[in-house]
Amino acid sequence: MYKKIILFLITLASPFVFHFENYHSNNHKIQNSASNTNYFTSFDGTKIAYSDEGNGFPVLLVHGFISNRTSWNNTAIKEELTSKGYRVIIPDLRGNGESDKPHDENAYKENSEIKDLKLLMDQLKIKKYFAIGYSRGSIVLAKLLTKDKRIEKAVLGGMGADFTNPDWERRIMFAEAFNGNSDLYPETKGALNYAKSIGADTLILHYLQKYQPVTNPKELNKIKKPILVIAGDQDMDNGDPFELKSFLKKGQVIIVKGNHNETSKTQEFADEVIKFLNS
Predict the structure, then answer these.
(1) HSE-up of 140 (CA within 13 Å, CB side)?
(2) What CATH number should be reported for the domain holding residue 121?
């Protein structure tokens, strides 16, 4: 839990639908624009925005909370991936960035974000790929790992083991705070004020916390692919990275310098991730 509101604010700035069977492929369409923003229509009609750069082995990047795909633009890891010839695919998760922002609560239930990501990779005809998440993006990616066997390697950045608890106090606290109950949780006010200052939709942020994916240790232990857990030496915001690693059959942990907000941007983070992907 954050000791200071400002630190919590910074952390969040970096850092759940209809049944899949009802989806029909003829409603699924890619649109391109000159700004490298592409769109596809997901299983329930929600339009998802994404960027797609390069022609090499695909790498999916998943952004965090109160954020969008542009958060990767100022990171060394995106620079390294593109310069080394990888194909970098970055979506705006539903409710964020240029993707649709439905106010129907059902649009965020039953792992809708996971379905979106799988359908995106289907549409792009991706047979195998790497995936990197940071902060809440790692929580989404952890669940995706249990649903999509095409992922060859994954990186869970800025994350410990706390998200594996369905009754995680921090998640519940923020779900309540973004639902108009911030007065009950003074430590959330900084994050709430920040979200309002950038025009974020607080109702959607409430849904994203309320229906956030939960992947329990038993599910994680069934994943057979190599997973790197990487966090800053000043970042225990989401629990213990070593505990998270202990749930993984082929997990490893690397601790680099940095706090939650800054770690994903650093060259050290990028170097360790590239080394892992290339190993």
Answers:
(1) 32
(2) 3.40.50.1820
